[in-house]
Amino acid sequence: MSTVNDQITDSVNQVNTLLMGSAPVQSMGMLNVAATETIGMSMFNAISTQQNAQTSASAAVAASCAKMLQQSPPMPEKKQAPDEKADLSQIEALVQELLKQHTDAKDNPQS
């Protein structure tokens, strides 16, 4: 029969006790590290997605502005030659109508 020194047996028991006592702490530490890494990657993905969306929106605005700038402006109206006479009958009719409305409003004030 072989006998083991009591100091060796005590040392092995202390190491086992130490390992059993530190296992929950180590597992919680690893869980916290994994959770921190996951949250960090989630934030990175959210920021990356937001930047990509902003880039796409800026590109769409730039493309729309470029299309608007490429459109030709409307042709200006033909100006009346200085020797042609303007048709004043429509202007006179409008002035007469406004004067009549003004006179009617003055004679019949609303309460």
TrEMBL record:
Regions of compositional bias (Basic and acidic residues) in chain numbering: 76-87
Database matches in InterPro entries: Killing_trait_RebB
Domain of life assignment: Bacteria
Chain segments carrying region Disordered: 68-87
The protein, known as: Glycerol-3-phosphate dehydrogenase subunit C
